[in-house]
Amino acid sequence: MSFDRSVGASGAPDAVVAVAPPRLLRRTGRVSVVSVLSSLVLLAVAVCCIAPGLVEPHDPGQIDVTARFASPSAAHVAGTDSLGQDVFSRVIDGTRAAVGGPLVIAFGAIVIATLLGVLMGYHRGWLDLVLGRAVDILWALPGLLIVIVMIGVIGGGYWAAVAVLTVLFVPEPLRLVRAATIEQTVKPYIEATRMLELRTARVLLRHLLPNLYPVLVANFFLSFTYGISGLASLSFLGLGDGPGSTNWGRMLSENRTDVFTNPWGALAPALAIVLVAVAANLLGGALYERLASQGRAR
Amino acid sequence: MSGAEIARYVAKRLLFSCVAIVAISVVVFALIHLTPGDPEHAVGIASPQNATPAFFHQLRQHFGLDKPITTQLLTFFANASHLDFGLSYRTNQSALSLVVARMGVTGPLFLLSAGVALVCGIAMAGAAAFRRGDAVDRGSQNAAIFMLSAPAFAVGTILLYCFAVSLGWFPVLGEGTGVMDRFWHLALPSITLGLTGVAVIFKNLRSHLLTILEQDYVTFARSRGFSRATLLRGFVLRNALVTLITTTSVMLVGFISTSVIVEITFGLDGVGSLLADSILHEDIPVVQAITFLLALFIVGLNLVTDLLYFAVDPRIRAEEARA
After folding, report:
1. Cβ neighbours of residue B275 under 8 Å, at least 6 residues apart?
2. Entry pTM
3. ipTM score here?
4. Phi, psi for A80 (deg, rounded to 5)
């Protein structure tokens, strides 16, 4: 239980360890169906990312013009597209592009937001004022539109989009981290660290940061979800990966015109995006509630 | 609160809007130089027929491309001040007229979507807040998470397949002719775009309604035996109005991005799809015209929002008078 590191002034660590097992048991008994399903979806996603070859029934790039627009069958679970490629295998193949970038976006945005947010909330002063204004302005802009125009006009493709989205996703977690830091700074345990004359870095990393975990975890999943949606939207518009890639947004836009012959060519990637994005967001919410109530129970 | 104070507040907001517009103009101006290669190259990509010496001459003339960059910026300001963005690389028509022609689709789309979002969002938030913690509340929270995380083009495609292709209740693509037919064609796009707004309204309004319902004056009003409807009208909704105004403006800004996706998904010829098309064809004057007009829209929206606060909430008026 990483949370107990922050106990510091408020309780003896021994006592916490002693009550931990029964509490942990009680907690595992309260897992909701929604969280279990979300975790299973994300587990499947992880498998598809790490070893797509194991799960794909066919080679995603194998073209077979004799088997164009096949309806779903045992051989082709979601049918085939205009080139006779297996839609299901292509969806699995696209998982890496669908969640790889968003993982980088979420991680990057949270790290930047935490660094700046904690400094802003702990020290206040001019840094807080200047960055606060910058965040206000970023906040008021239509983020996705900026990415569309920037990537479209300047170019750069997938990873440039990842970089721009990372910066655009900083304001939301930054505000929350800053507010949470301010909320924690007035608590007695931080005052105690001041009295003990601990170094600021130690106070922030060892004592304050663990109390921000619920906010950080929740926002990681939120940024991840928005990242999936944003990157897929870009590739849907033709601004991400090149033609013929298995990127879900791209697949959907290319197979849309064949919606009457094999609707699954467009429906499968659409359902995949919705499923993954919703699962990540639901799991993030559930984890937040769990971590936050853990903090309160202490 | 005197008339002079109101005038001072409005003047302050207007000044801020002007600064914002100048800042945005600089960014929009930079677009022509951010494109890889020179403008002639972009014209070649946009439309080979237009890559003629005569077109290049008017292009250089209009943007002052041979002059120093500061002069170019001033030329851009002068042109933008009367909404002149030059000729489209692709069609040789004025960029502004192309955009204005598309507003007939995007305008109604925004209005209908905002209607869908406000009606559903307020109803859901109200129901969830009054029945905090029970199945209605939890169900609508999960629904909001769904609407917030699923990208519009995926939801749009699924709706399109279910209700237009399979069931045939709605037309598949395009915007139709005649008032009723156009309305019918906009139904699914408006629902798709509106759903993203429902989530925004629901999330913010629900949490604000909960804090209002916990206030002493609401408890007191309840104990006096007012009906739920009176309670809502007299004590809760008026206080929630400020949140509703803010969220509506946030939602409309969000619509700008999402409408690009929705218009392409449903094959609507609106401003958003024109923007995406122009970007793919490097038709920079049209991109500049659209981004500038959208920026004006956002600045105007923020101005109206600020002024509405002022009209709606006496507490903000009092605060401004003190400041």
Report:
1. A148, A149, B260, B286, B287, B290, B291
2. 0.82
3. 0.81
4. -125, 165
